[in-house]
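Running co-folding for zinc ion.
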Amino acid sequence: MLLVPLSVACPNCGSKDITYTCEPKCCFNHLCGSCYSTFELATIPLGKQFHEVAIPAGERDSLAPTTACAVCESLDLFQVDEGEGPDVTLFCSACHALLKLEFEAVQRS
Ligand SMILES: [Zn+2]
Ligand SMILES: [Zn+2]
């Protein structure tokens, strides 16, 4: 299983030019740089855990897509690189839960 930084596609236009516009202590509102739609990212526990995985090192980019683990509320989430699929699976490096990425409060402009 390969872990990569979160890379989300706009639910309106599919662009990956997504900027995180708020702070984790407030909300997970994101802005699409192509169509200016906004949306919030959330996670749903898949009820599975994964342990034998190497956690990538590196600094978090404050403008990169961000959301919190639905199990432990950690922000240390990575995307599971499974190729191009309709669903995005996330991995929490704090509690090792596997999560499904959800879009909420989508405002198409
Ligand atoms: Zn868009
Ligand atoms: Zn967690």
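Result summary
The chain has a mean pLDDT of 93.
The pocket of zinc ion (ligand 2) is lined by residues 69, 71-72, 74, 92, 94-95, 97 (CB under 6 Å).
Job closed.
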